[in-house]
Design brief:
about 250 residues, mainly alpha, 8 helices, about 50% helix, disordered N terminus
Length: about 250
């Protein structure tokens, strides 16, 4: 009987020690194994409770800060203020995910010339076209080019043609080329609307029909009787043209 009691006592002690050792292992793997005292456990519980309370306080503070930010109306682009001539158009395209500007600096650079690649990207987003997975057919667009999928998409849809085997992705988009890609992309057709001839656009110009068509739809109207077909298209201008085209379609 005594031997049984001793054995039972030994088993109980072993179980207690094993349980305490498990707690210690979960607390710190580097400390030596030992049975936790009541005082040690109480201190750890207090410390854990304090950490939890601090964390809850930080979360509550963060949620309040997020709420304060959401309640305000942030300026998306510092260089496109409400009094800018194309503010409505740029903000609309931004809200619809068609443009994003340069988020790392919070700017849109509206007066910069838009590149052919940037114009292609905007048209794809405006039309919600699925991206191509075809290899590049242009000698200046390698398979590692970040815009290869967008460039091949507009090429396969007949929106951009390139020139002599090149796409010229970083070249500024000329205004006549802008008219041509918009007319192709949105399949704009000639109307009966009478528009005045531009003094710098003659019927022999490559892009004449497209310029006439987008003018009939009120997408572009030129300036003081000129269209400036060879001039670069500004980012603000192309945004306005895209916005107006979407209203037509």
């Amino acid at each position: 009987m005594k031997m049984w009691k001793k054995g039972f006592f030994f088993v109980c002690c072993s179980l207690v020690l094993a349980s305490c050792s498990s707690i210690e292992k979960e607390t710190t793997a580097e400390a030596p194994l030992e049975a936790a005292s009541v005082e040690w456990v109480d201190e750890e519980v207090k410390s854990l409770s304090k950490d939890t309370a601090d964390l809850d306080e930080r979360i509550a503070k963060l949620e309040k800060e997020i709420g304060d930010v959401s309640a305000s109306e942030p300026v998306v682009f510092e260089d496109v203020q409400p009094d800018y001539w194309a503010y409505k158009e740029i903000m609309n395209l931004s809200d619809n995910g068609i443009i994003k500007g340069y988020p790392d600096v919070g700017l849109f650079y509206p007066e910069r010339s838009i590149t052919r690649y940037q114009a292609a990207s905007m048209i794809i987003k405006a039309l919600d076209l699925p991206l191509s997975d075809s290899p590049s057919v242009f000698k200046d667009v390698s398979k590692s080019h970040p815009g290869m999928a967008e460039i091949m998409t507009v090429y396969e849809h007949g929106i951009f043609n390139g020139s002599n085997g090149s796409f010229l992705p970083n070249e500024p988009m000329k205004r006549r080329h802008m008219a041509m890609v918009l007319q192709r992309a949105f399949e704009l057709e000639e109307t009966d609307v009478e528009v005045a001839d531009y003094r710098d656009v003659n019927p022999d110009l490559d892009g004449y029909d497209a310029i006439k068509i987008i003018s009939q739809h009120g997408i572009a109207t030129g300036s003081n009787g000129s269209f400036m077909p060879e001039s670069p298209t500004k980012r603000s201008q192309f945004s306005a043209f895209i916005y107006r085209t979407l209203q037509v379609k």
